[in-house]
Amino acid sequence: MAIEQYKLQLNTPLMTVWDFISIPENWLPLLPDFIRLNQLSLTTYHVFLYLKLGPIDREVQLEFNIQLNKQTHSVDFTFHSTTGKVTGYGFLKADAPTTTTTTTTNLTLAIEVKLSGKTGLLFKPALTSLKTSWSQETLNKLALLLNESEN
Question: What share of the chain is helix, strand, coil (3-state, %, to 5)?
């Protein structure tokens, strides 16, 4: 099954968007219900956020491993909870549409989240909603920040 992608078009030049998203500290705090961020290395971050998924309603710690691809302007990531019960992967990518001016950029976010064991099966419908809300909310916050930076 292919990972769902969520897209947004910005009136911001490609390199401005790339310069922003290539620094994980700029966009990881935009995840919904973000609490705090600890950088462990150049490519590894602990993200603390509040997870609301069915009866799960608590703070979780996710370890994100980030890989930058400068050629494709893509930030690829994997993540897992400290308990190993939550895992996932995705990417955040900026690209210039071929039909518009150089001041427009497409921003794409894709997130796949999985829960292990029986919990994963039980909450599969809720996970779809969670991925959609995480993606849309994060993209909207990015758009606000990047559009403000252009003014």
Answer: 30, 45, 25
